[in-house]
Amino acid sequence: MDKQQQTELEAAAFRRLVTHLRERTDVQNIDLMNLSGFCRNCLSKWYTAAAQERGVDLELEQAREIVYGMPYADWKQQHQTEATQAQKDQYNDKH
Question: What is the pTM of this model?
């Protein structure tokens, strides 16, 4: 596999991950953080950082819209639920 093929495969895997996260609105970011140590917001921040490293002007809110498939405020209103105390405790224990 050459470098271009690797980049294309990585991009395809990223797109599939983003599609999966968009479809799984039942999975809250705190669940992702507690289980894997990253969430949709982390992915958005990594996307923004990668853009900045390459001299591409991309704001965090733009990256969030790419990851969430809609403005972040809309996603929160439509899909985000209040974290339970158990979720918050687990998060605080790990982070």
Answer: 0.90
